[in-house]
Amino acid sequence: MKNIRLSVMLYTGFSLVALIAVLVGTIGLLGERTMEHEIRVLGEVRMPAVLSLNEIDSARQSIHAQTLESLLFPQITNNTLNHLKKLAEGQKSSWLRMDAAIKLYSDLPQSEEGGALFRQFNQEYSQWKDQYRELDSQMERLSRTSDSTEYETLFNVYREQSLAIAPLTGALSGDIARMVEYNRNHTLQTVSDADASAVQSMIILATIMILGFLVALACGWFITRHTLRLLGGEPAEVMRIVDQVAEGDLTIAIKLRPGDSDSLLARFDQMIVKIRRLMKEVSEASLQVSAAAEELSASSAQTNAQVQLQQAEITQVATAMNQMTATVLDVASNASAAARAAQSADSDTSAGMEAVSEVVQAINNLAKEVESITGNILKLVDDSKEIGGVLDVIQSIAEQTNLLALNAAIEAARAGDHGRGFAVVADEVRSLASRTQDSTEDIKDRIDRVQNSSALAANQMEEGQSLALQTVEKAGLAGDALKTISAAVASINDMNAQIATAAEEQSSVAEEINRNVSNITQAIDETATAASQVTSASQELAVLSASLQRNVQQFKIS
Q: Hey, how many other C-beta atoms are within 10 angstroms of the C-beta on 423?
């Protein structure tokens, strides 16, 4: 697990959270679609069916009541005829109402059982209607006659026909009651199914939300633990150590966790140890170079004095021959020592340049790692913003669901007692939408806090990267100084070669001094020039050595 990249863990963790959020939204939508279907069935089928049956039964009762009322007038009077005419007109209105209600009921979707009940009702209704048509015709004849004897005869026939139609009227009333009971039971079943679907959706949503919270909590804990293990400590502590090292303090003691050898802080501690050891070696080498420069300067001064003395006492060459020979040998010995010291300084300078190059490379690698971590944290900010967009969509869906539930509650209130169960369902849907909205706002607040923390971490990483680049620049300056020292040492080697040549020439001139004094004079002039050059080079070497010591002293190594 420790080899998994931080970006992969972040992508995986937030992908799981996003997947759970999508799953919650999908289940919520499916539950809403199911409840919407049940509500549509209630509003478009069940409730209109019950209303139509009530209208049919009401019209039937009106027709039956008008028929019974007409039986209250067995004898003809002027008021009787007028009343019978009004009853006949009422019968026509009731028949129109009944036919319209039956037409509305027949247009509604029917199940197999409901269709069978309606077909049976239609058969009995056709018979009942045919018989009632004859009864209505008899009532019209009663309302038009003016003869009392004819009226009594017609009234007796009307009464017998009304008594004969009574069983069929009772059967028709039973059919209507069975259809009403059937639709009432289906309405209650639809409400029960919607309630069960809502409860199941709530349970599933609560389970998934709890699971999502646990997954998010586990991912956050694991990613935080893994990040701290990669860094080796708290980011603020790591930055403090890096700042202290960047200021040149190599004496810092880093407290590592037990068994920590692979974290960034552990590798940084190893780098500090190597740099501290390198700085000690460079400091010692600079001291050696300084000592060698002082010796070289003293030797060159001595050589210069001897040459001037030889020039002053050229007339005493013959008597001072032995002393000049000894001086030439001293010059050759000093030139050899200077050559060895210069070679040693050149070797130490090369080692210092290699060490500085390693320091630059290590700090560059550190800057690249910091840049990579900064990019990953910025990617985390972008992903959390996308999750915030998904939460906005879920919140919008919850608000729309709440509005639909409120509208459904209003419609249920309008329906009165028949919409009471529907109002309970609408209230539960609105409560579920409200809780979904509250949970979405809570998740959004937490993601906002994650975005703020990620942005702060990215800024801190950028500051660390800037400090690392400054350290690279300082190490580059040290490398440039070592290159200058190396060039000076090469120049000293060249001068030492010239001194050796001059010493050989002086030895040759000493052997032939009796033959050519002029050649000795020329050789002495050349020796004086070479001695001046050696003095100048030794002074430059001393300056470079002091500069190297000042650069090294910027680092605290003890």
A: 16
Please provide the distance, in angstroms rounded to a whole number, between the alpha carbons at the two ends of the chain.
Answer: 39
State both tokens at 496: 């030492």
* CB environment 3-19: b (16+ within 10 A), e (fewer): eeebeebbeebbeebbe
Chain mean position to CA 525: 82
Range picked from 291-295, 313-317, 318-322, 554-558 for highest mean pLDDT: 291-295
Q: Considering the domain 6-224 in this protein, what is its CATH number?
A: 1.20.120.1730
- Supply the angle between the helices 517-552 and 321-415 in degrees, to the nearest 10: 30
Identify each DSSP E strand in 420-551 by its residue range. Answer: none
Domain 232-244+260-552 is of which CATH architecture?
Orthogonal Bundle (1.10)
Angle at 24 between CA 20 and CA 26, to 5 degrees: 115
286 pLDDT band, cuts 50/70/90, is confident
Q: Say if residues 70 and 84 touch (Cβ distance below 8 Å).
A: yes
Sole residue written with tokens 């940084």: 268
CA dist 471 and 138 (Å) reads: 118
Boundaries of every domain in the chain: 6-224, 232-244+260-552
Rounded Cα distance between 506 and 391, Å, is 95
DSSP string, 502-539: HHHHHHHHHHTTTT-HHHHHHHHHHHHHHHHHHHHHHH
Structure tokens at 525: 């002039």
| 70-99 as b/e: b if 16+ CB within 10 A | beebeebeeebbebbeebbeebeebbebbe
Contacts 24+ apart (CB under 8 A), 405-408: 405/429, 405/430, 405/433, 406/430, 408/39
Give the whole-angstrom CA distance, residue 221 versus residue 487: 57
Taking the whole predicted model, whether its pTM rises above 0.90 is answered as no
**Predicted pLDDT at 461:** 66
Which residue type, as a one-letter code, is found at position 368? K
Separation CA 192–CA 520 (nearest Å): 129
pLDDT of residue 331 exceeding 60: no
Alpha-carbon span 451 to 233, nearest angstrom: 22
Residue-wise pLDDT for 122-132, tens only, equals: 888 888 888 88
Pick from 541, 548, 493: nearest CA to 297: 541
Q: What's the CA angle centered on 56, arms 55 and 59, to 5 degrees?
A: 85
